[in-house]
Amino acid sequence: MSYAARALSGYRRLFRARKALFQNDERALRESALAIRSEFNKNRLVTGPAEHVEGLLAMIDDAEDMLRHGIVQGELNKERNVVEVKIQPEHEMRMEPDSITHLDPITSETGDRMDPSGKPEVEVTRVNR
């Protein structure tokens, strides 16, 4: 498969992965689409050693893997000061047991909406499929 075909395939996979991760979050969907497009446009005319191009293509695979298995989306429950997170089996397999309740906001705006007295508790629900 040509580099262009592999890049286009990767672009589509990233868009599907972001859609699955950020479903029902219009802002995250919009911003992730812009970020993906920006990176692809920045590298649109890349030529050079095959190792460089292969490295860029590998970054697509890594980004897709991160979106599908490395990030979970939580919902802030302000009344209880709890972030409710549903962990899928594919996420739990890759997580260290003590990191399952670690919380890092993706954006500063998300962090600003959290209770200033400290990070909220993380309430984990394991989803069985």
Question: Can you walk me through this structure?
Answer:
With 129 residues, the chain is α+β, with helices and mostly antiparallel strands. The protein is elongated. The protein is 52% helix and 12% strand. It starts with a helix and ends with a strand. The chain contains 5 helices and 3 strands; from the N terminus they run H-H-H-E-E-H-H-E. It has a 3-stranded mixed sheet with strand order 1-2-3.
Summarize the structure in short:
The chain is elongated. The two termini are 34 Å apart.
Helices, by number, come to 5
Q: Could you give a short account of the major beta sheet?
A: 3 strands, mixed
State the end-to-end CA separation.
34 Å
Q: What is the alpha-carbon Rg in Å?
A: 17 Å
The percent of residues in helical segments reads: 40-55%
Tally the beta strands. 3
Overall average residue pLDDT: 82
Record the strand order, biggest sheet: 1-2-3
Overall 3D form:
elongated
Question: How large a portion of the residues is in β-strands, by DSSP E?
Answer: 5-15%
Q: Would you identify the regions where 5 or more consecutive residues have pLDDT less than 50?
A: none
